[in-house]
Specification:
Pathway: Phospholipid metabolism; phosphatidylcholine biosynthesis; phosphatidylcholine from phosphocholine: step 2/2
Membrane topology: Multi-pass membrane protein
Strand content: under 5%
Strand order of the largest sheet: 1-2
GO molecular function: diacylglycerol cholinephosphotransferase activity
Keywords: Membrane, Transferase, Transmembrane, Transmembrane helix
Protein name: diacylglycerol cholinephosphotransferase
Helix content: 55-70%
Length: 421
């Protein structure tokens, strides 16, 4: 069975992308650069190829972290981390990802390939990038396996969920004066550069020490000398609060303008905290010897599985947007997380030891099976959705081609802008 109901396929032809970007940096600095960059790409290159190229750079960054520091997957005392120059490659890779992610829409308009498939593909890649960058940024900030990294994962995914939810109810993607895809990514690029210059240990330095305020005893007694990485996390918390207010304000106005209830959309925020609660219940289980997943080699696979499940969740939300169908409430992968959480908390809930995760080996097998199931589920979603959209609209995913009225494949531009003979 596909993900798009038969009656919703016709809505694909009615979809048109709408977006608002209020970023000053984007308007006056980045957009002129992007306009020049898109011209480097031939019109024979499909927009989705550009998007996938950008995501590939992030995958390379992630793989270099694992290759250069295998101890991050298999913890060892005193293990040496990667060379500092590696962080410069992460900065370059992320910056190019942002640039390619920004020009795929421009390429779609150049080639006559703009449509719902590009929207789905772009957001799907963004969803995958979100978790990978959380892991990489936490590594560069010297947070490692900690609750700060978990908090960063929650805040980052929450921002993405809010944006998707807002786009569904307002009909347009809204990027404010400070947004994750623009300023947020550039901040992470800056983190990588600083880590490359001074090492990750610099983020453990107190902010009062960096600002040289610690010399003033009267101020030092009042203000805590929080580490720079912790300050960055607090800043992210305030950013999330601001985005919650902004997103709901936009939804509230849109619903009032259309004469609909502005409070009903709040119910569709519930799936996200539900999914997060299951993950936290599992991670915080005391039966794991003080959160063994959090402090073991399973932490990265666990976060990756979480990220893939989230990508599936928001992917279905975006699909509902482009097909004008109701937002989904349920994801069957929650059952896997519920089993893992209940099993881990069996001593507290049922007065018995865990059945599946009673040993480190059993725990590891379960987490990796969860990762495989999450990857298979999201892969199936992508495959079926791409197949449904390309077949119905008569377009290709990675080539600039469309089927004409006779069913013959031709270059998209030749159909959209026919030339006189």
């Amino acid at each position: 069975m596909g993900y798009i109901p038969q009656h919703a396929l016709d809505n694909l032809k009615k979809y048109s992308y709408k977006g608002v970007d209020k970023s000053v940096l984007s308007k006056y600095v980045l957009n002129p650069f992007w306009n020049q960059l898109v011209r480097v790409w031939p019109k024979s290159v499909a927009p989705n190829t550009i998007t996938l190229t950008g995501l590939s750079l992030v995958f390379i960054n992630f793989l270099t972290m694992l290759v250069c520091d295998p101890a991050y997957l298999t913890p060892k005392e005193g293990a040496a981390g990667p060379p500092q120059w590696l962080y410069f490659t992460w900065a370059a890779g992320l910056f190019m990802y942002q640039s390619l992610d920004a020009i795929d829409g421009k390429q779609a308009r150049r080639t006559g390939m703009a449509g719902p498939l590009g929207e789905m593909f772009d957001h799907g890649c963004d969803a995958i990038n979100t978790t990978l960058e959380v892991i990489l940024a936490a590594y560069a900030l010297n947070l490692g396996r900690s609750w700060w990294t978990v908090a960063s994962q929650i805040a980052t995914l929450a921002n993405f969920y809010l944006t998707t939810w807002e786009e569904f109810y307002t009909g347009q993607l809204f990027l404010g004066v400070f947004s994750g895809p623009v300023e947020g990514i550039l901040m992470i690029v800056g983190i990588y550069v600083i880590s490359g210059l001074y090492g990750t240990q610099v983020w453990d330095t107190g902010i009062l020490t960096v600002l040289r305020i610690d010399r003033w005893e009267s101020i030092a007694k009042i203000l805590p000398d929080m580490a720079l990485n912790e300050v960055f996390m607090v800043f992210g918390g305030f950013g999330l609060a601001f985005n919650i207010i902004t997103s709901y304000t936009n939804v509230y106005r849109a619903r009032q303008k259309s004469g609909q209830s502005p409070f009903t959309p709040l119910l569709h925020l519930l799936p996200f905290p539900t999914a997060v609660a299951l993950q936290l219940l599992w991670l915080s289980a005391p039966s794991f010897d003080n959160s063994a997943i959090l402090h073991s080699s399973l932490f990265v696979p666990f976060l990756c599985a979480w990220g893939l499940q989230f990508a599936h969740q928001v992917g279905r939300m975006i699909l509902a947007h482009v097909t004008s169908t109701p937002l989904p409430w349920w994801d069957w992968m929650w059952l896997c997380n519920l089993v893992g959480a209940l099993d881990a908390n069996a001593p507290q809930f049922f007065g018995r030891s865990p059945i599946i995760q009673s040993t480190p080996i059993g725990r590891g097998i379960f987490v990796y099976l969860l990762l495989a199931a999450s990857l298979a589920t999201y892969g199936r979603f992508c495959s079926l959705v791409i197949s449904d959209i390309t077949n119905y609209l008569g377009i290709a995913c990675f080539t600039v081609r469309k089927r004409d009225e006779n069913g013959v494949w031709r270059e998209a531009g030749a159909i959209d802008h026919p030339k006189s003979s």
